[in-house]
Amino acid sequence: MRGAVAFSESIISILFTLSITAANAGKHHFREAPKFYNSPKCPSIHYTTTPATGAAAAEARICSDNAVHVAMTLDASYLRGSMAAILSVLQHSSCPENIIFHFVASAAANTSHLKLTIANAFPYLQFNIYPFDDSAVAGLISTSIRAALDCPLNYARNYLAELLPKCVQKAVYLDSDLVLVDDISKLAATPLGNEAVLAAPEYCNANFTSYFTLTFWSNPSLSLTFANRKPCYFNTGVMVIDLERWRAGDYTTKIVEWMELQKRMRIYELGSLPPFLLVFAGNIAPVDHQWNQHGLGGDNFRGLCRDLHPGPVSLLHWSGKGKPWARLDANRPCPLDALWAPYDLLQTPYLLDS
Ligand SMILES: *[C@@H]1O[C@H](CO)[C@@H](O)[C@H](O)[C@H]1NC(C)=O
Ligand SMILES: *[C@@H]1O[C@H](CO)[C@@H](O)[C@H](O)[C@H]1NC(C)=O
């Protein structure tokens, strides 16, 4: 019952958030995005039997089968990226009013402030913010080659099934350093088949060996994890997650178990990705590569500019060290950063104080 109470409280907080008018949103000033409307063909996410307003209506909307759920993290350093990502999702959607955003933020962050910032920039957005207890995961993190990958919030994607309301059966998880240039409902509709828990673009030519240490490969009880599987690399920045199957299989615990092992014996070098590969690689549903044109941030060591992979583009992902907002501010953009700039909602990009 406690869960139900927390759920309706959070619904009420959405309603309050949406009625808050412009107030001091702090040091980041984002301009207000336009309102985006459903095309006439869109299914309704309102149930006719529930009231049009109030907490019951908000809950009915969240639980509607016609809603598209998008999960992202929110933190101060990537906020500008998140705002651009949200705008890009709405702008390219044919049913933007059916999209419900689920934001995970550090429990230590000022959630009211984040709510205000989002609501000011997107007054019509349906969203909820879930405080994430960083300390729970902080003890599980071992240092990786890039400090940003060690941020506890980076691991929040592992806890979505617990954080989001139980009636949400499926969600698209998106990193904050990307923009969509296509309709997210196509990605959300990826068939997961009879068994897959998640769907993502797979890269079977990547050298899988290099994601794990010699300690891992030389220990048969560990390396046998991949026996009878054709493990392929996938990037965890864009995933369609079947939250019902995730909950049923308790995959959060399975991932945490690998993280606990990593603390005791180093079996991989990167941050949150390898446990996902250990649990899911070879068993995911495929998504066309156009939905994650990744690596645009450049390599982790020299920050060189990268080009698009051949083929169509539905989503541009600045994974890697360089972020387009930082390079644009520094007046040293990579050519493809020009594709991110139109989604930048920051009002005074050159007065950023951190
Ligand atoms: C949190 O943010 C709200 C809204 O911006 C603000 O009124 C409040 O003072 C902030 N609280 C703290 C502890 O900074
Ligand atoms: C894959 O990576 C491993 C270790 O990093 C290396 O020893 C091996 O030669 C690589 N295989 C190929 C086909 O490049």
UniProtKB/TrEMBL annotation:
One GO CC annotation: endomembrane system
SUPFAM superfamilies assigned: Nucleotide-diphospho-sugar transferases
Protein name: Hexosyltransferase
Signal peptide (UniProt feature, chain positions): 1-25
Membrane topology, as annotated: Single-pass type II membrane protein
Metabolic or biological pathway: Glycan metabolism; pectin biosynthesis
A Gene Ontology molecular function term of the record: glycosyltransferase activity
Gene3D superfamilies: Spore Coat Polysaccharide Biosynthesis Protein SpsA, Chain A
Pfam families named among the record's database cross-references: Glyco_transf_8
Family recorded in the similarity comment: Belongs to the glycosyltransferase 8 family.
Organism of this sequence: Abeliophyllum distichum
Subcellular locations according to the entry: Endomembrane system
InterPro entries, per database record: Glyco_trans_8, Glycosyltrans_8_dom-fam, Nucleotide-diphossugar_trans
EC code(s) of this entry: 2.4.1.-
Sorted UniProt keywords: Glycoprotein, Glycosyltransferase, Membrane, Signal, Signal-anchor, Transferase, Transmembrane, Transmembrane helix
Main localization, broad class: membrane
